[in-house]
Design goal:
mainly alpha, about 35% helix, 2 domains
């Protein structure tokens, strides 16, 4: 027996959003279980004055704004300086740049095999991915070590 939904259940209509959150228990300020059971749905909570206060206090700030996206170079999710000072920070390469570097390697291999169409296509995608780099690690602020970012972008 599994706690995963059946294929038929995956096609079920979406439930309406709860007053306290968008239905995701991991983002709900009132769901206190650090490891909610799959499928991580908020059960909904009574709309009491105390619960409204908790939701109001935790929904302030840019990280809790509906549709918020931490932009490239954004610092809103970075850990405080004293926390960062307590840990060692490794070299950081964003997932976009890591994938782009692999595409560039594939382009080199394609060039060796005279597959010019693939070279152009791989390099085009690599360029797109480098443009999508967030430039710094969103929690530590460590800059992406990829050599495709000029100092102007930092």
């Amino acid at each position: 027996m599994t706690d995963r939904p059946s294929l038929e259940d995956l096609d079920a209509p979406l439930e309406p959003a709860r007053w306290c959150c968008d239905g995701n228990a991991e983002d709900c300020p009132l769901c206190t279980d650090p490891n909610p059971p799959y499928p991580f749905l908020c059960p909904g909570h009574p709309q009491t004055a105390a619960n409204e206060r908790i939701v109001g206090e935790t929904s302030q700030g840019p990280d809790r704004t509906p549709g918020f996206v931490n932009p490239p170079g954004g610092t809103s999710e970075q850990l405080p300086a004293d926390i960062l000072a307590a840990i060692s920070l490794p070299v950081y390469v964003s997932t976009a740049c890591e994938t782009a570097l692999r595409l560039e390697d594939a382009a080199v291999m394609a060039a060796r095999e005279d597959r010019d169409g693939d070279v152009d296509r791989f390099m085009e995608w690599a360029g797109r991915l480098h443009e999508r780099c967030r430039l710094n690690h969103k929690f530590t602020g460590v800059r992406c070590a990829c050599n495709h970012h000029g100092e102007a972008s930092r």
